[in-house]
């Protein structure tokens, strides 16, 4: 990997923008594209204060554009970083500082005062108002900043402000200017106490002035506001005893890339849901109390350690009628048959919610870099088995490909050995190899269902840095790869998967979460002409978001993006459930990698 | 910055070892940027997509109240309080790591909840598929334990009825046998035992979740506001003890950028002039905006004392022991009894007395 910049911050970006690993980007290794002097051809309007000004008909495209993808992306990143700072100023509503991002000669659409084009009532009493921005006159810089004040000044709180560069092209020359496709997204609580979300999109021109890009033209082509009188959910961790505040990510106390999961089950048999939450330096076993709270009894009940668990599952492994607990941990083989890290654990429940760390048989002596654990009875013998997703050791290894990495930790299939004549649990043996699913992709997540309705449990595995796999159970203890045949390969960075009927036809559909990025999509649009169609289609997929596969005959069909439901960015766990009890399944999906304290994103 | 655009690749998109390195640069460099406090795909909040029943989804994440920026990983969708709708537990990566989102939509459309027990194959019926037909709507769910990403759902399936008055329930058991359990009524909680053919009701275990403190407040109605330190116009610390005034107090939180706050300053000044009420208005402006706050007080409510939120100091109570500045909606006014107890919380502008 050749890093052009000495800044270490670029390295993870490299790691993530898989996009570029495939592309033989033009202009690479070349020098600066041109030094010919050229101005932006500005027609500065007469300055005025707070009065309407004429807007240009559109924003000109550079007639001599910078062609090096890398140079364009460098400029774009500089702009995006600058707009992140601006967004932070807006979030804090420091309107007096806003003029630092705009040219004194700015001509722009104001962000308020547009005529309403239409008002739509959406489900759950949400109202969406679209504005007719094309009919609006322009304003100068003072007028634009005043419009920011008008838009946000009476909100009770501004919770999130994003200005994203969705696309950019730049004019060559010393006096650099660029034409931008900008997206604005602001959320908060409005003056009436209702939830509000603003979506804007527009074209802008930015000119580099004394080393910094200033916007001098900004023409909206979309302005929409969504409101609801109240949020759908109320966060109640503090009043239920579940609150656990921890250091921000990146501090010494919180810097592990071993993501911690969660499991729900009734561990003490009293009919309510207890929670096991593995964590960085302690585990939590939240026992539901009759008064509506939960109390952490992890240590008292024998599941306080080891910490740093990933996936965890409650299930009855020894068929004695209570909920046992398996915890995924990360371990790896060392020379001489030794093992580093931690092996996965099985904790046996005594029936009253007291747990014992059991040996677990030969299968649990093996190391796995375990993430999602999935319970299934793959051999139909009535003893529950567990599939273990083996990822890779991010602290010491690197994926050997962005599109089909094959150096992950092997997946495991732990076959349940049942109990002996005295009723003692015999544990598990790893039969992944014999079953044909000892995959070495970087597996993060799996979900199980009887996909082909032949009476046995099939398995879908989402792989990071590679294609996903649908393992079809043959009914004889083995699986065959049905991913291609059923149309669910879903190349990309698979992060999570869940089955559920999203179309209301009674058959199970498949929701897959992926990693995507604004920067990835942006770069792709520039590579269009330079790479072959197949590669481009793949890369486009990699930057597209999540995937919905709907059941279609004997296979699955990808749901078209226009139907929504897939627009996440760095997505993790999808949960399919009926949030509004209207008879169809909705989707919640955790999202986002790391939100730091500083405005800068990488 | 896309340094990677010039990365060379070998055949089939694979990197050679010297290009990749085997020293874990990803983790090390990630660690470094995060130590510095930078974001990486940050502020990408959790998503909620609402199914319109016709195959399309509406993104209501922004209005959900469940879109934390603490970077969620695992999620459990379950009925935490057994009231019939689906709540969410999210395991976040940082800060407030355990979030429980109580569903406030209510159960008016109706629901049925089912648990399963198989008599052939695995007794927990993991992998069973349950189909519910309610009115015009049909929907299936699978009983899973371990799906999504590192998430294990509770073994209870909840079906919304969309206003229908009955739900016809069919189970496809592990092994493939299909069994109908007939119609369930709205609100039914039913244990479905393989081969039984009829549902066995199970009792609700309702759990009343205490109302949380209002957003952005660390005190609630009935709590006493502790003494706290603010800064005066000169930047000198001043101790505010609402209970020491011996009078009713309106503790107003405002900022110079908040238009309704600025608009109500004259009214607060009027309140303060009344015999039976003292107004303590605290500006929560950032240090860079304090001068603007001073100007506004001087211009709009000159007789009000100036109180500025100071920085947090160890061993000293500040306004941040009363409110959470990052989440506090403005304006907020706490009406306090003479002993400092919160009697009323006014969200938004105050009304003339």
Describe this structure in words.
The complex is a heterodimer of chains A (602) and B (353). Chain A is mostly beta strands and 602 residues long. In chain A, 12% of the residues lie in helices and 35% in strands. Chain A has eight helices and 35 strands. In chain A, a hairpin with a 5-residue loop joins strand 28 (469-473) and strand 29 (479-481). In chain A, helix 7 (518-527) runs antiparallel to helix 8 (533-542). Mean pLDDT of chain A is 88; it is low at 1-49. Chain B is mainly β and 353 residues long. Chain B is built from four helices and 22 strands. Chain B has helices at residues 17-20, 25-35, 259-273, 290-300; strands at 47-51, 57-59, 72-78, 87-92, 95-96, 98-103, 111-117, 129-134, 137-142, 151-152, 157-160, 167-172, 178-184, 189-193, 200-201, 228-231, 237-240, 248-254, 277-283, 307-308, 332-336, 342-347. The longest helix of chain B is centred in the C-terminal third of the chain and has 15 residues, at 259-273. The chains are: A mainly beta (602), B mainly beta (353). Strand 11 (245-246) of chain A pairs antiparallel with strand 5 of chain B.
């Amino acid at each position: 990997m050749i890093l052009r910049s000495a800044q270490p911050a670029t390295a993870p970006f490299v790691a993530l923008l898989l996009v570029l690993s495939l592309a033989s980007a033009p202009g690479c290794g070349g020098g600066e594209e041109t030094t010919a002097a050229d101005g932006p051809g500005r027609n500065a309007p007469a300055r005025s204060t707070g009065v309407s000004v004429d807007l240009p008909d559109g924003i000109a495209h550079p007639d001599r554009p910078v062609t090096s993808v890398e140079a364009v992306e460098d400029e774009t990143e500089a702009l995006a970083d600058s707009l992140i700072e601006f967004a932070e100023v807006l979030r804090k509503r420091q309107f007096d500082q806003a003029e630092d991002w705009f040219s004194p000669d700015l001509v722009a659409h104001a962000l308020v005062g547009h005529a309403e084009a239409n008002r739509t009532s959406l489900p759950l009493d949400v109202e969406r108002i679209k504005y007719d921005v094309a009919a609006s006159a322009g304003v100068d810089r003072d007028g634009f900043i005043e419009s920011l004040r008008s838009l946000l000044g009476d909100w009770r709180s501004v919770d999130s402000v994003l200005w994203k560069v969705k696309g950019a092209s730049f004019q060559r020359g010393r006096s650099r200017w660029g034409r931008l496709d900008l997206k604005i997204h602001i959320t908060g609580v409005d003056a009436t106490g209702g939830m509000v979300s603003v979506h804007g999109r527009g074209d802008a021109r930015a000119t580099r002035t004394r080393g910094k890009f200033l916007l001098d033209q900004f023409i909206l082509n979309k302005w929409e506001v969504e409101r609801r009188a109240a949020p759908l959910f109320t966060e109640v961790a503090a009043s239920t005893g579940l609150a656990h505040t921890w250091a921000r990510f990146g501090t010494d106390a919180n810097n592990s890339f071993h993501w911690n999961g969660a499991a729900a089950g009734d561990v003490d048999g009293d009919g309510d849901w207890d929670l096991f939450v593995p964590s960085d330096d302690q585990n939590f076993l939240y026992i539901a109390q009759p008064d509506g709270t939960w109390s952490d009894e992890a240590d008292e009940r024998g599941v306080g350690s080891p910490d740093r668990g990933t996936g965890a599952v409650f299930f009855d492994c020894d068929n004695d009628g209570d909920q046992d607990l398996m915890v995924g941990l990360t371990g790896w083989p060392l020379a001489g048959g030794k093992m580093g890290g931690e092996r996965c654990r099985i904790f046996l429940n005594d029936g009253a919610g007291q747990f014992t760390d059991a040996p677990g048989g030969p299968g649990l002596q093996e190391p796995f870099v375990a993430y999602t654990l999935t319970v299934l009875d793959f051999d139909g013998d009535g003893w529950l088995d567990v599939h273990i997703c083996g990822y890779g050791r991010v602290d010491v290894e690197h994926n050997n490909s962005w599109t089909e990495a094959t150096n992950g930790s092997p997946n495991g299939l732990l076959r349940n050995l049942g109990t002996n004549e005295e009723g003692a649990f015999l544990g598990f043996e790893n039969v992944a190899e014999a079953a044909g699913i000892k995959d070495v992709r970087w597996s993060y997540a799996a979900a199980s269902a009887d996909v082909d309705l032949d009476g046995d449990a099939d398995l879908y595995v989402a792989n990071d840095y590679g294609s996903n796999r649908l393992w079809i159970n043959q009914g004889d203890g083995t699986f065959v790869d049905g991913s291609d045949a059923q149309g669910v390969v879903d190349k990309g960075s698979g992060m999570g998967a869940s089955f559920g009927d999203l179309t209301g036809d009674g058959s199970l559909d498949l929701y897959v979460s992926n990693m995507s990025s604004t920067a990835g999509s942006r770069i792709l649009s520039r590579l269009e002409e330079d790479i072959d169609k197949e590669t481009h289609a793949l890369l486009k997929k990699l930057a597209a978001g999540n995937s919905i596969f709907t059941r279609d005959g004997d296979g699955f069909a990808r749901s078209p993006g226009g139907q929504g439901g897939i627009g996440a960015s760095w997505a993790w766990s999808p949960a399919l459930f009926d949030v509004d009890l209207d008879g169809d399944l909705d989707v919640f999906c955790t999202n986002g990698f790391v939100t730091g304290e500083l405005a800068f994103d990488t | 910055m896309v340094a990677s655009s010039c990365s060379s690749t070998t055949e089939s998109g694979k990197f050679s070892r010297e290009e990749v390195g085997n020293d874990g640069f990803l983790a090390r460099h990630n660690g470094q940027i995060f130590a510095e406090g930078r974001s990486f795909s940050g502020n990408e909040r959790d998503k909620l997509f609402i199914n319109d029943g016709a195959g399309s989804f509406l993104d209501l994440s922004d209005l959900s109240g469940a879109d934390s920026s603490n970077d969620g990983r695992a999620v459990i969708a379950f009925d935490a309080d057994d009231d019939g709708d689906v709540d969410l537990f999210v395991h976040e990566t940082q800060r407030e790591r355990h979030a429980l989102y109580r569903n406030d939509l209510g159960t008016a459309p109706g629901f049925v909840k089912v648990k399963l027990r198989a008599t052939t194959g695995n007794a927990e019926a993991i992998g069973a598929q349950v189909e519910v037909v309610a009115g015009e709507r049909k929907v299936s769910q699978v009983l899973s334990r371990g799906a999504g990403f590192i998430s294990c759902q509770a073994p209870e399936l909840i079906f919304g009825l969309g206003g229908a008055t009955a739900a016809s329930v069919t189970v496809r058991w592990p092994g493939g046998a299909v069994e109908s359990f007939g119609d369930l009524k709205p609100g039914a909680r039913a244990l479905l035992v393989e081969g039984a053919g009829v549902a066995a009701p199970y009792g609700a275990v309702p759990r009343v979740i205490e109302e949380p403190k209002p957003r952005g407040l660390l005190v609630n109605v009935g709590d006493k506001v502790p003494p706290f330190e603010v800064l005066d116009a000169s930047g000198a610390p001043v101790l505010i003890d609402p209970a020491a005034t011996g009078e009713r107090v309106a503790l107003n939180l405002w900022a110079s950028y908040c238009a309704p706050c600025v608009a109500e300053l004259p009214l607060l000044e009027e309140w303060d002039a009344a015999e039976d009420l003292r107004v303590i208005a605290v500006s929560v402006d950032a240090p860079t905006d304090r001068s603007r706050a001073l100007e506004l007080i001087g211009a709009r409510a000159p007789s009000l004392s100036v109180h500025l939120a100071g920085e947090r100091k160890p061993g000293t109570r500040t306004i941040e022991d009363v409110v959470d500045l990052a989440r506090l909606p403005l304006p907020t006014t706490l009406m306090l009894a003479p002993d400092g107890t919160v009697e009323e919380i006014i969200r938004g502008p105050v009304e003339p007395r």
